[in-house]
Specification:
Number of domains: 2
CATH topology of the largest domain: Glutaconate Coenzyme A-transferase
Distance between the termini: 83 Å
Number of helices: 15
CATH class of the largest domain: Alpha Beta
Strand content: 15-25%
Shape: globular
Strand order of the largest sheet: 1-10-8-6-2-3-4-5
CATH architecture of the largest domain: 3-Layer(aba) Sandwich
């Protein structure tokens, strides 16, 4: 059968697609910017008549309509592989939960049966090409692995989803799809990084001066890594490469400034490699049909062995807080889930194994609570319930606006001394006293 005939045969309305889902189903709901839109609207109408539907997704950029039905937890549960502020709010509303994972392993969870196969998989895709393929757009991540075991696969075509090229497991053929919904072509969800603060800029400068020509970059989510990217775009650095779990707006700025060539990459030379992307329309326009950019599954991009094969690998990520032992919490405030582990540990490990590589954990020295109280991000011990994202043996560079320290190879008293030296001055005496109590301080705080 001709691929166009096959397409027409499988075409259904969003309402018809929503009717496939029944009580007790496991439903994969796209990823990041490619969560369904039109089907979501129809399913929100149907969901109040269903029970125990379990959805999986992550890093939502728009609040799904299904989240707004009455008595959500009586009808469905949302399991998040990684979180945005939308999902954080949903956890507080009582119907969403975080699934702790090592993101690089996610495709294997589907393939090895560690997570139930999807009864229904739904995701937005770019329009079908002349060979019958839909691109997963900005969300290659784990979607091919999910599709391999899914019982029903539904794609929602959106002309605004960029066709992301260059890699593998980055799309799906019409022959593998059960239903095609031609959506209303809503704009892609946006994830702007936010304005850089003075603190962000100070930290970014400390990081950028460590980056050599020809380095390969990974940037995490948030204003801090994007500020680093902005400074790189304005720097004299050249021949940089990209190999990053997440592709962000800063990479577009660096590339357009002529700093990225990928000429020194040991693998995927001249290519910018990533597992998913989220940002502004500038980013989506840049990725569309761009053969320089290489969309790949996360079990390849985040594989420590792949990362470490790239020389001078620079990994730049955020933290919520860090204790005096060098344990990094990048995902919770006590028991309150803020984000997810994602691939941070993979890149921390891979960067250090890389010849000339460095990983940087960046954070402001302080933050203010809702009541206006100033708190230190460098703490004696992590708060009860806080998650250790990066263990103390794996933390490499830590950077605040007061400086940067390399924690590798240090004894516990040395780690404490180094971290206190880049803490906010108002908290240093207190931190020294706590270090003494914990017997990780070699000298008296009076000296």
């Amino acid at each position: 059968m001709d691929i166009r005939e096959l397409y027409d045969k499988k075409k259904v309305s969003a309402k018809e697609a929503s009717e496939v889902i029944k009580s007790g189903d496991w439903v994969d709901y796209g990823w990041t910017a490619t969560t369904p839109h039109d089907i979501d609207i129809e399913l929100a109408k149907r969901l109040p008549n269903l029970e125990n539907v379990i959805f999986r997704g992550g890093i939502l950029l728009k609040r799904p309509k299904i989240f707004d039905i009455e008595n959500q937890k009586e009808h469905f549960t949302w399991n998040s592989w990684h979180m945005s502020g939308i999902e954080r709010k949903a956890i507080n509303e009582g119907f969403a939960f975080y699934a702790p994972i090592r993101y690089s392993e996610l495709p294997r969870y589907y393939r090895d049966g560690n997570t139930p196969p999807a009864d229904v998989m739904i995701t937005q895709v770019s329009p079908m090409d002349e060979h019958g393929y839909f691109s997963f757009g900005t969300s290659a991540s784990h979607l091919a692995a999910c599709a391999e075991s899914a019982k029903v696969i539904i794609v929602e075509v959106n002309e605004n989803v960029p066709r992301c090229l260059g890699g593998f497991e980055d799309g799906i053929h019409i022959s593998q799809v059960d239903m095609v919904v031609e959506g209303s072509n809503p704009p892609m969800g946006q994830s702007p990084a936010g304005e850089a603060t003075e603190v962000d800029t100070k930290i970014a400068k400390l990081v950028v001066e460590e980056i050599p020509n020809g380095a390969c970059l990974q940037l995490g989510i948030g204003s801090m890594p994007n500020t680093v990217g902005s400074l790189i775009a304005q720097s004299d650095l050249k021949d940089l490469g990209v190999h990053s779990e997440m592709y962000v707006d800063a990479f577009v700025d660096i590339a357009k400034a002529g700093k990225i060539t990928g000429a020194n990459k040991e693998i995927n030379r001249y290519r910018q490699t990533y597992a998913f992307a989220a940002g502004t329309q500038k980013l989506y326009d840049y990725l569309d049909n761009n053969p320089e950019c290489m969309s790949c599954p996360v079990d390849y991009v985040n594989d420590v062995r792949v990362i470490s094969s790239l020389n001078n690998f620079m990994s730049i990520n955020n933290a919520v807080d860090i204790d005096l032992y060098g344990q990094v919490n990048a995902e919770s405030a006590g028991i309150r889930q803020i984000s997810g582990a994602g691939g941070q540990l993979d890149f921390v490990l891979g960067a250090y194994l890389s010849k000339g590589g460095k990983s940087f954990i960046c954070c402001s020295s302080t933050f203010k609570t809702k009541s206006g109280e100033l708190k230190s991000r460098i703490v004696p011990t992590l708060n009860p319930g806080s998650i250790v994202t990066d263990t103390r043996a794996n933390t490499h560079y830590v950077v605040t606006e007061y400086g940067k320290v390399n924690l590798k190879g240090l004894a516990v008293w040395q780690k404490a001394e180094a971290l206190i030296s880049i803490s906010h001055p108002d908290f240093r005496d207190e931190l020294i006293k706590e270090a003494e109590k914990q017997k990780i301080w070699r000298r008296s705080n009076k000296k």
